[in-house]
Specification:
single chain; 372 residues; abc type-2 transporter like fold; four-stranded mixed β-sheet; 15 helices
């Protein structure tokens, strides 16, 4: 039977050690704030202020209207007006521009005759993702310009048109997707790194003999050491959430209590994983390195945070099921952006509870209260 008295004694002992270790306190409270601010500003998939060169071979009011449409879109900045298409290549080679528009000499004549007016867009494809986004913006501006011409009766109306509407992230801002994901990624890293030092610290400071002599079950040792860090982790979740909402303007549409409950299950598993690593390594330096490898790369690359899981190869997709941050990522984005509840997130919640059980079981199994 677990004893509340022994659990409280172990938790109090860990709090005292933690208060004396300023580096761990800085890691617990300062690092999550720094990471969310740094990654929140540094990581973005938004493409704007696109340096654009224009070769206007038509020199008509229609071609100038088209150029003005690109300027007023908010995405393109026309920095160069070129005389001939041959001047485009040197600018693309030096990355002085990312898009070149070539308006042919018969552009306005084709519009007046009711024929399709062609526009050539030349994009730097060395960055395939950015090039795809630029081409999408270009097509959107061209479509908007064509719609204006249809209203004037200059071109024939299409047989069908699509009216699009975006839900949950109306501005298509990448921060609204990145910041909730950062909550999952950062907490996975911080939680595992914090507890990866606990048992290894006992070995390095020579206090494991005293701990082994106490009448405390090893499961009570694991739970007692875990409780202070669980409280710290929940505080970090609240702080990171507040920063995301107030600093980055990310909407929070869901239930805060549900987020904290599911975060508790996720943190218990991550903390248990850290204690498992600490018990295996018995060295703070090695434990920190192992915790970083076991959490940072999987959480960053295989959770769906940076890359969509659906486009990964099948073997990697199978590996992602073993990454707990994958499930908490769905939880944070669902609660932040969609405002969904238990009926939608119950599968992720059950999987994170299973992760918590496995993490505690591994830490308890490996930790031994004896000196070898």
């Amino acid at each position: 039977m677990l004893s509340r008295r022994r659990l409280w004694a172990m938790a109090r002992k860990e709090v005292i050690q933690l208060r004396r270790d300023t580096r761990s306190l800085a890691l617990a409270f300062v690092l999550p704030v720094l990471l969310v601010v740094l990654f929140g500003y540094a990581i973005t998939w938004d493409v704007d202020d696109i340096a654009t060169a224009v070769v206007d071979q038509d020199q008509s009011s229609r071609s100038r209207d088209l150029i003005d449409a690109f300027r007023s879109s908010g995405y393109f900045t026309v920095t160069r007006s070129l005389e001939r298409p041959g001047d485009i290549e040197p600018l693309l080679d030096r990355s002085a521009i990312r898009l070149a528009l070539v308006i042919p000499p018969d552009f306005s004549a084709a519009i007046l005759a009711g024929r399709p007016a062609e526009l050539q867009a030349i994009v730097d494809g060395s960055d395939a993702n950015t090039a795809s986004i630029i081409l999408g913006y270009t097509q959107a501006v061209a479509l908007s310009y064509s719609s204006a011409l249809r209203l004037e009766g200059r071109v024939r109306a299409l047989p069908a048109t699509a009216e699009s509407r975006v839900w949950y992230n109306e501005e298509l801002s990448s921060r609204n997707m990145i910041v909730p994901g950062l909550v999952a990624v950062i907490m996975m890293i911080i939680a595992a790194m914090l507890t990866s030092l606990t048992i290894a610290r006992e070995w390095e400071r020579g206090t494991m003999e005293q701990l082994a002599a106490t009448p405390v079950h090893r499961f009570e040792v694991v739970i007692g050491k875990l409780l202070p860090y669980l409280a710290i982790g929940l505080i970090d979740v609240v702080v990171v959430t507040i920063i995301g909402v107030l600093l980055f303007g990310v909407p929070f549409r869901g239930n805060a209590l549900l987020l904290m409950i599911l975060a508790t299950a996720f943190l218990i598993g991550a903390l248990g994983l850290g204690m498992f690593i600490s018990a295996v390594a018995k060295s703070q330096v090695l434990a920190t390195q192992l915790a970083m490898i076991a959490t940072f790369l999987p959480a960053f690359l295989l959770s769906g945070f940076m890359f969509a899981i659906a486009v990964m190869p099948a073997p990697l997709q199978a590996v992602t099921y073993l990454v707990p941050a994958r499930y908490f990522l769905v939880v944070t984005r669902g609660i932040f952006l969609k405002g969904v509840g238990v009926e939608v997130l119950r599968v992720q919640g059950l999987l994170m509870i299973a992760f918590a059980i496995v993490g505690l079981a591994l830490a308890t199994r490996v930790f031994q209260k004896r000196i070898l």
